[in-house]
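Model it.
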Amino acid sequence: MAGRRKRERQDDAPESHDRWLVSYADFITLLFAFFVVMYAISSVNESKYRVLAQALGQAFGGKIPQAPTVPDVSNIGNPIEPAPQPPLNRRQTAAQRQYNEALRRERQEMTSIARDIQEALSTLVDEGKVRVTQTDRGVKVDISAAILFAPGDATLTPESGVALRAIAKRLKTDTHDLQVEGHTDDIPINTTAFPSNWELSSARASSVVRLFRDNGVAESRMAAVGRAANFPVASNQTPEGRLRNRRVEVMIQATLPEQVTEVPITDGQGR
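Modeled.
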């Protein structure tokens, strides 16, 4: 009797029409997961994929899917070429090439001048009385004052003409500017003609410039400078050092071309 009543109560219970929502929710969840996985495969990011894989693994029973394998195409077909660079300013590149070529020619010319002077004065170079060096400024000919002047004097000795005329012969057809510098040791001088080493060094430089002029070097290319004892090349504590410091330097100045820079032209209003 009791069983019959129980069956009657179950039969009388209203039928549920919402059970399809459970299946629909499961289907939507799976569909969402499918699209998430497809998106992850299309744009692989290892760190993001690891987080996604862990989340999906927890949702689907703890199994973590493996990261998709991206095929290596670096060695397929032709070798990879570097990415194209933005086009260079051709006008600026041409100007740079022109500058470099002018600089190369100038340095070659300076080297030729240095070699010719060193060969012309090879005997004095071997004796250590003349030194020829090439720097960024040009070619420097360092001549000991012992072969040019008597002590405390600025008049050129007869033997000095051999060296100086050889230099003038090479430079008279050249176009580079010359700066002739006179240097002394630190021993003071106080005479009527030379109250200090400034006057002595300046007079010695002027004597060399006059000889160059008389041997065909244009005056407009030359300058005479007195340095006194302010630029020693050796110690003034020894006779040998003072002898080295008493010198005349002939600087053949390089004419380095200025590097071309482009400045935009405006109409005064920034346009």
